Amino acid sequence: GHRTGFSASYKSKKQGPVAVFLAEYDALNGLGHGCGHNIFGCVSSLAAACLKQVTDEVGGEVRVYGTPGEEGGENGSAKGSFVREGFFKDVDFALCEHPGKDSFNSLTSSSLACAPLDIEFWGRSAHAASAPEKGINALDALIMVYNAANALRQHLPSDVKIHGIIVDGGKAPNMVPDYAHAKFYIRAASMPVMMDTYKKLEKIVEGAALQTGAKGRMQPYQNIVENTIVTPLFDEVFKESLEEMGEKIGGAPVSIGSSDVGNVSQVVPTIQPNLSITRESIPNHSELMVKAACSEYGLETIRLGAKTLALTALKLMMDPERLQAIKAQHAEKLKDQA
């Protein structure tokens, strides 16, 4: 479960599509809103409130899913839980808008699948000088995994990234470490490739345990994040709506990170365009982004984003043929990935 997650809905008596606005509101530990999620959650909530005003007239249902932990943390990436627990089984489409770090607006970008992992080993402690033969070195096993992961990289597709840190390597140099712990990420452009790499790293952990006699374990410490399936026909509706608001898309989307919006995109057509909150391009997850996210210029994008998302959803609720075309394209994209 997620202590700060929520679901809110308004349903018309008339039949129609189910639209979900995804809300994020988590900050970055030690930094604050360096990804602008203070704006993100407000945009989705306000967009849903706008659309609710005409839902009785056009039919259908409007929902807001409050999905905490996109940046990780306690049971992170809540959208994965919402998908797993069936919250999208009757949903027709999902949408949200992310505060942009660039000086231009952009459409939904692809993102990498990501498995956040704990790798742990349990050995047996002993005095490192007087009785080393009685010990089983958990740190040795973990270092074997680290080195083997480095060797594995040269035999992986170019889109695969493996990175990790050792967070516990023992307590004192005169003691054989009886416990060692690392955190790793595996990222890839698609879930099938990411899961194939996952299995390879799992075998490496098993091998290190066999070589040292330690007990090893590898497991995700939060929801696995899936790659984003981009549905261009859906983005086109957002682009039209943005232009009707007097704004335009100004550049091509680029992303090499991960987002649990990807989990949603694996089950329903989903968009996550970016609306710029800065006049000059700045780094994401930075102090500059924190300032932009609470600047007057940045906060004013809440109004624009909410109106544009609401209009995008309204168009699909009123145009069954267009919605069906989007669903068909989404299904093809999923098939291509498989």
List keywords for this structure.
alpha/beta; Aminopeptidase; single chain; 9 helices; 11 strands; 338 residues; 4-stranded antiparallel sheet; Alpha-Beta Plaits
Describe the protein.
With 338 residues, the chain is an alpha/beta fold. The chain is built from nine helices and eleven strands. It has a five-stranded mixed beta sheet. Strands 7-8-6-9 form a four-stranded antiparallel beta sheet, covered by helices on one side. It has a two-stranded parallel ribbon with strand order 5-11. Strand 2, helix 1 and strand 3 form a beta-alpha-beta unit. The radius of gyration is 23 Å and the shape is elongated. The protein starts with 5 loop residues before the first strand and ends with a helix.
- For the record, what CATH class of the largest domain applies? Alpha Beta
Determine the structural class based on helices, strands and strand pairing: alpha/beta
Q: What's the CATH topology name of the largest domain?
A: Aminopeptidase
Mean pLDDT: 95
